[in-house]
Amino acid sequence: MSSSADLVDDVLAEILLRLPPKCVLRCRAVSKRWRSVATCPAFAAAYSRRRPLELLAYPEPTGRRRRPHRRRLLRFHNPAHLVGSCDGLLLFVVHQRSFLVCNPATRHWTWLPPLPPRRCTYALATGFYLHRPSGEHRVLCTYSVPMHHATPGSVISIEEAMAMAGNFHYVLSTGAGAEARQLGRIAHHTFTSACVTLGATLYWLHHPEAGGGGGSSADIVAFDTVSETFRRLPRPPPPSPGSNLRAFDMDGRLAVSVVEKLSRRMDVWVLHDGGEGSCWSCILRIDELPPPRYYNGGFYQSYEAVGVLEGGELVVVGGGWVVVYDVKGKRELSRVDHRGRVLNLSMWLYRESLVKLPEPDPRPCPISLPGGEPLLHYYSSSDDDDDADVHLYGNRISGRKEKNKQEDREEGKRMARDSSLVFSLPDALCTLPPSPLVANGTAALHRPTNARHHPPSLLQPPNLARPTCA
Amino acid sequence: MEVDKGKGEAEETRKVAEADRDTVTLKSSDGKLFEVSKEAAARLSTVLAGMIAGGSIDDNGTDLKQIGSEALENVVDYCNKHANSIPSAALISSSISFNTAPFKEPEEWERKFVDRLSHDALFDLVEAANFLGMERLLDVTCHKISEMMKGKSPDQIREVFNIKNDYTKEELEEIRQELAWAFYDD
């Protein structure tokens, strides 16, 4: 008669791989052997490879409570903004200039090294990646020091002030004892678009290093995370003005989705080979995306591809929808109504992991909720939730017709029937209602009140957001 | 002369018969014999496939000393009844370090297959599946065991799995402090 005490390590690992992170952590307390199996690096690596790729939507778009396959990963409060996701780690910027990394699965967190103290500055994370040679997770960021605030409280010459002011690339690392490291000064500061990480290279459609003021014809910029150098790549063939472009990772290759102004047709271009002999080819055309919605202040942002989930499911966001499209079968698999008060929905791909931070901070996480709530609130909604109401939103749009509501309800029922389909979607993150920013000394004095962490996308034609119907 | 010829012929007939046979005989640690379809065995188990291809299958019962008769019966049952509905083991990489896809949920019949087993039979079967390199059977049995573990405290897990707590009180307290949140139910 066997007892499970003699399960071989391989089998035990196979079993633990199938458990949610919380259970795996608990199992460390079962016995020393279990702990050694559950903490070995090979197990951690296999564990994250076995997690599905999920989509994080932030902030939560509407007040509806439940959605299919949705779970709340983490609660955080207002001065913090989610600005990156890599290997199961989430990157937040707090008070516009401090970076915090946390792993919601293990609830470990740490501050990244501080940027040099300057008054009235802000930092923008442009990339969050694994630096393979060191195994550290790093942030590439743009650090801006306005001229008139370069000196905290002392009188200096113009020359000195000019030397201090400007925009700089910095690299911050989770590595133990690391300090913020300046990579260089940025000549022409422009908007930086969402970053795509492929292997050891980061890519941006819009980046200051593209030069030439970063217009719509500027080059794509690539950053080698090992040599820490920038280079430029050609864009896909120029689309008509006002098109909405977004770069994303398509099975390990750089892809760009292109949607012309006011169009529902999307072309997906893929870059073949990097370096000198690179060329673009259009590998997919989606002719009819769901018709765009409008809310009482204008249209939702135009369509853009966010990424590819398991099984070749392309996720397209825009027009008040999240659409999952089967790339191989060339058909729409499902769509979720994504209307709400939030216009610039930020989407991140996330894969749960047990990645350890070198020096997790033992203190309570400063962005967690006050009042004794768990540091990071985590729950999983049951997958078999077949409530027909699940996909619907409240009628927040003034002047909408009863008929529309009826249509929505029908659609909700249809979606609920289809909910066994493919959704490892969508939003896992939730914010609290905005709370006033916490002033911390001088930093609060000159903080630009309209500074945002997700600058409005230049890719998004401005007139799309203008209401066309009263 | 005559005798030798007859022996040679018999040998030849036996060889032909062996090659033609579409079943393999497996022998459990306690000496019981089980017949399993050769095609299914080769398709579902990387280890048996290797033995069949390498000619190390014994006609009088291939010894599987690591597997008890109850577990082997379940393995054979699984192979014979369900061979057609399972993809080949050879097509799936068997090592955890190379698998990248998320786990596939067991199908209804697979669920039923493992649900009827006692704890001990289940643990024996998971070891047998691991030993024979039967990817899908390992998948299904591990899934079942992981289901049994979900939501349980370390104490409850020790009880189910018959494991001795080898931590000192202080060590255990340290782990609980470090991972305090994981020990509360949502």
UniProtKB/TrEMBL annotation, chain A:
Annotated F-box domain residues: 7-47
Name of the protein described by the UniProt record: F-box domain-containing protein
Do you know which CDD domains this protein is assigned to? F-box_AtFBW1-like (cd22157)
Biased composition, Basic and acidic residues: where in the chain? 399-417
Tell me any Pfam family this protein matches: FBA_1
User: Which stretches of sequence are listed as region Disordered?
Assistant: 395-417, 447-470
Superkingdom, taxonomy of origin: Eukaryota
From TrEMBL, chain B:
Can you supply a Gene Ontology BP term from the record?
protein ubiquitination
Instruction: Say yes or no: keyword rRNA processing present.
Output: no
UniProt pathway: Protein modification; protein ubiquitination
**A Pfam family recorded for this sequence:** Skp1
Keywords of this protein's UniProt record, alphabetized? Ubl conjugation pathway
The segment annotated Disordered runs over 1-21
Q: Which residues form the SKP1 component POZ domain?
A: 23-84
Q: Which domain of life is it from?
A: Eukaryota
Q: Where is the SKP1 component dimerisation domain?
A: 136-182
* InterPro entries per the UniProt record, alphabetical: SKP1, SKP1-like, SKP1-like_dim_sf, SKP1/BTB/POZ_sf, Skp1_comp_dimer, Skp1_comp_POZ
Q: Write out the function statement from the record.
A: Involved in ubiquitination and subsequent proteasomal degradation of target proteins. Together with CUL1, RBX1 and a F-box protein, it forms a SCF E3 ubiquitin ligase complex. The functional specificity of this complex depends on the type of F-box protein. In the SCF complex, it serves as an adapter that links the F-box protein to CUL1.
What's this protein's family per the entry?
Answer: Belongs to the SKP1 family.
User: Quaternary structure per UniProt?
Assistant: Part of a SCF (SKP1-cullin-F-box) protein ligase complex.
Q: What is this protein called?
A: SKP1-like protein
Q: Which organism is it from?
A: Digitaria exilis
